[in-house]
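Example complex used in Figure S2.
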Amino acid sequence: MSPRAHTPLKPASTAPEQIRNFCIIAHIDHGKSTLADRMLQITGIVDDRSMRAQYLDRMDIERERGITIKSQAVRMPWEVDGVTYALNMIDTPGHVDFTYEVSRSLAACEGAILLVDAAQGIEAQTLANLYLAMENDLTIIPVLNKIDLPAADPEKYAKELASLIGGSPDDVLRVSGKTGVGVDVLLDEVVANIPHPVGNASAPARAMIFDSVYDAYRGVITYVRVVDGALKPRERIQMMSTKAAHELLEIGVSSPEPVPSQGLGVGEVGYLITGVKDVRQSKVGDTVTNLQKPATQALAGYVDPKPMVFSGLYPIDGSDYPVLREALDKLKLSDASLNYEPETSVALGFGFRCGFLGLLHLEIITERLEREFGLDLIATAPSVPYEVTTEDGKTAEVTNPSEYPTGKIKSVSEPVVKVAILTPKDYVGTIMELCQSRRGNLLGMDYLGEERVEMRYTMPLGEIVFDFFDHLKSRTQGYASLDYEPCGEQEADLVKVDILLQGEQVDAFSAIVHKDKAYSYGVLMTERLKKLIPRQQFEVPIQAAIGARIIARETISAIRKDVLAKCYGGDITRKRKLLEKQKEGKKRMKMVGRVEVPQEAFIAALQGDDEVKKK
Amino acid sequence: MNSPLRTLSAYIHVPYCSVRCGYCDFNTYTGSELRGAKRSDFVQHVGLEIAHARRELSATSDDRTLDTVFFGGGTPTILPASDIAAVLDLLRDSFGFSADAEITVEANPDTVDREYFDALRASGVTRVSLGMQSSVPHVLRTLDRTHDPVRIPGLVEQARASGVAVSVDVIYGTPGESIDDWQRTLDALGDLQLDHVSAYALIVEDGTALARKIKRGEIAAPDPDLHAEMYELADERFELMGLSWYEVSNWSRSIETQSRHNLAYWRNHDWWGFGAGAHSHIGDRRWWNIKHPAAYGQAVSRGVSPQLGEEVPTEAQRSLEHTMLGLRIREGIPLSMLTPRARLKVAELISTGLLDGIAAIEGTGRLTLRGRLLADTVIRALTD
Ligand SMILES: Nc1nc2c(ncn2[C@@H]2O[C@H](COP(=O)(O)OP(=O)(O)OP(=O)(O)O)[C@@H](O)[C@H]2O)c(=O)[nH]1
Ligand SMILES: C[S@@+](CC[C@H](N)C(=O)[O-])C[C@H]1O[C@@H](n2cnc3c(N)ncnc32)[C@H](O)[C@@H]1O
Ligand code: SF4
Ligand SMILES: [Mg+2]
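Predicted assembly (999 residues):
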C-alpha cells in the first residue's frame, strides 16, 4: 500500500489541530510492536526493504527476548480527506515490571489504542493498563488484534471488551498486525476520535521530559512533549527542577530515525540534544523551559515508583567498581525506576544495593550492565524491603538481609500487594491452592463472561516476586495472567536465616523468610553450597542458622590428596602449565574466614541454577 | 650455561605398543596407527637425531658424557634387543658414558624373557623397569593389561640372573580395585624382594577410552580419598620392606638403588630426549619433538631438526619449576630460595602437618606423608 500523505508536516509549524498523540497499550505479547510495524510501513516512514519485525525493539536484549522494554515514540504522517496530520505514536512494553514506563508514555498522549489479542481476550495487564489510561483521561480506542489467527474469536472478545469500556461490540476495531488488515481504518479512527493537543502557543515554553537515554556518540538524548510555547535550535533552555541551563544543539523528531527540525511547537513530541554528557542533568519528569523567558510553574512531574525488589550487584573484578557506578548512572537516565546505593559485602567486596520493579527488571538491568558496559556481575539473592522494629522501639527499613538488626526484634512488617489473576474457570481450584501456600488472602472473584474469572488476593510481595509467576503459568498451562500493585504492609512471622561457613557468616546468602520456610531455605542453601565449594585442607561445616540456632547442617570433608602422582617423564612444561592454571583459579577465590570459595560458587549458589525451577 | 653441577642424560622414546591400554595417553602408536612409519626404521631415525645432537652440543663446547640413559615408551621392549644395543652404541660413540652410567629400559612383561634380558645386559643396560601394574586379574583387565601376573616373579628372577637391577611399576586406585586387592598387589611386591618400586595413582586422562567409559557411566570414577588411603598403605608396607620414598611416587632401598635418571628430571638437570614426541631440557631451553613417528622420521631424514616447539621459561617460571620439581623429592628445596611472601607460609604448612618441621629448621622444605598427598597445595602455597 502506498502512503497516503506525501508531504509530512514540518515540526515547529504544525498546528495542534493536525497533531494526534497516542500510545498502544496491551497485555504482554498481544502484538503492540507488530502493529506499530504496520503503521511505520503504511505511513511510509520505513520502506519495505528496511522493515524488520518489531522494528522499534532496538536493543539486542529486546530482540532476543521478543519483548519490549522501552517505550518508543515515532512521528508519522497520515492523510484523511485531503488533510495531512502528524501522528505521534508510542509503542509501550506490556510486562508488569514496566508499568512505570507505560505510565510515563501515557502522560505524553491524549489517546490510547487498547489492543487485545483476539485469541486470548482480556488479560491482567489489559486491565491494569486500561486503568492507567483512564486515570490519565485518555480517549480509548478498543482494538482486537491477530484476527488472522484461526483460533481468533473476535465476536466473543469484542463483547468482552465492549462490556469493559462501554459502547457496542461493533465499535471494537479488528486488525491484524501481521497482515496489516484494518490498520488504515484504525489510523483514520485515531484522527477522528483522539482529541488534538491543546496548549498556549504564546506562553513561555514548557515541555515535559518523558524519557531520556544516553548515546555514546551524542551524549544525553532527551525526549519531550511540548505543552506550551515552543523550543528552537540554538536557544538556551533550562531544566526547571535542577535550574541547569544548556544550549539546544539539536532538536527534532523520531521518524523513526532522528530527523532534526526547526523546533517543536505546542503538542509536539520530539527529542533534544544539548551535548551534555553528565547524565544527571536530564531528569525524567522535569520541565524544560526557555532560559530567557522561563515559565513560572513547572508541569506536574511523575511520581517515582517504589522499588519492589532489592538485590546487591557486585563486579566480579573488584576494580570494575567505578565502571559499574558510571554504568548505573547511565541506565538510570533512561530508567528512572532504577535505584541504587553503594554497599559492601564481606564476601563480595564493593557493590551497589539496587532497587527494581520486579525480577524481570532486575534480570534485564543486570544483563544490560554486562552487555552494554562489558561488566561481569554477581547479583545477591533478591529481597523485598522489610520494616523491622526492635524491642527498644527503633524502626529500620531493611533492603539487605545482612543489615537486619541484631538485637531483640519486636516486629517485622513486609510489603503486601493486591494481586489480580485472570484465568479460565477450570483452574480456580489449583490457583487457590497455590495462593494459599503463598499466604494469600482471597478478596473476591468476578466472572468476566462465562468462561473467565478474575480472582483478587492480597499477598506478601515476598511470596510472589520470585517464582510465583512460573508456578502460576505451569499450573494453568499458561492460561492465567497476573497483575499486582502495592497496597501497604503487614506484620508477619519473619526470620532472618544466615548461612555460616566454618562458623563464619556469609552475608551474601542471608535471607529474610517466613518462619515456615526457614528450614527449607536452610536445607536448600547448605546442600547447594556443599556441592559448589571445593574441599579444603580441613573439614568445613556449612550451617544455616536463625540467630544462634542451627537449623540445617552439611559438612565438606577435608581433601586428602591433590598430588598428580603419575610419571610425566620430561614434560615439565605441561606440569608447570597445570600448576599455573591452578594458581590462576586461586586468584578468583574469595576468602570466607579460612575457607577459599571460588567466585563461581557464589554465583551458582545465588542463581540457584535449575533445581529451584524444577521444584 | 653448561653448569658443571648439571649432569647430562639421554631419554629415548620408543613410540610403539601392540595395543593401547584404555588409561594411557602417552605418545605411542599401535601397528595400524603408524601410517607408514616402520619400527625397523627406529634405529636409523634416532641415529640421525643423535648425530644432530652431537653437532649442536659441540657447537657450544658441551662435552659432557651421559650420566644416565632411559628407554621409555610406549614399549621399548617391542623392539629387538639388538635395536636397543645399536642405539646404545651410537650414544656411546657420540657422547660416551660416565663410569657408573645408569642405563634403564622400560619392559613390558609380555615382551621379555631370559634371552632378552641377557641381550640387554650385554649391550650395557643396567636396569629394567617392569610394568607389572597389579597382581590382581580383574584390575589388570580393567587396565587392559594382557600379561599373566603369575609370570612376574619369574621375570624378576630372570632379569636379576642376567645381571640387571629390577624396578617394578604399579598403579593403584583403578576403578573396582578394593583395599584388599591393593593389599594383594603389595603382598606380591613384598615377595619380589625389590630394591625399587614406582607406584602411581591412576589418572584419568582426557581423550582416553577410560575417560569415555567413566563419562558414559560404565565405570566409576576413581575416588581420591581411596587413593590417599592406598598411598598411605603402600608407604607403610614399602617401609616394612626396607624401601623409603625419595620421590612422591618412588621408593628405594638405598641411595644407590634410586633411579638417577628420574632424579635428573626432578633436579632440573639437562637431558636430550630422542625420538618422536620426546622432551628435552638443556641450559635454559626446553623443547619437544614432532609427535608422530612418520613425520618425525621425515624430518630427521631431510636433515632438519625434528623439534616441534620450544620455550625459554622466564625467571618466574623457572623458580616455579624449581619449587614444583624439588618439593616432589625427599631432598626437598632450600627454603632460602623462596620469596619472602612464600616463607611466611612455611610455619603454617608445618603446623598443618604438610611440611617436615625438623627439615625446615635445618633450612629444607620437605614434604611429610600428608604433605606428599597434598603436594599441589604446598607447591601453590610456596609459589605465591
Ligand atoms: N498471527 C499473528 N501474530 C501476531 C500478530 N501480531 C503480533 N503477532 C505475534 O505475537 C507475538 C508478540 O508480538 P509483539 O508485537 O512483540 O507483542 P508486544 O505486545 O509488542 O509484546 P511486548 O512488547 O513484550 O508486550 C509475536 O510472535 C508476533 O509475531 C498478528 O496480528 N497475527
Ligand atoms: C611411561 S609409562 C609406560 C611404560 C610401559 N609401556 C607400560 O605401560 O608398562 C610408565 C608408567 O606410567 C604409569 N602410568 C601410565 N599411564 C598412567 C595413568 N594414566 N595413570 C597413572 N599411571 C600411569 C604406569 O605404571 C606405567 O608403567
Ligand atoms: S603398554 Fe604402556 S605405553 Fe603402551 S599403551 Fe599400555 S600403558 Fe601406554
Ligand atoms: Mg512490544
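The pocket of iron/sulfur cluster (ligand 3) is lined by residues B 17, 20-21, 24, 26, 28, 73-75, 108 (CB under 6 Å). Chain B has two domains: 8-266, 335-383.
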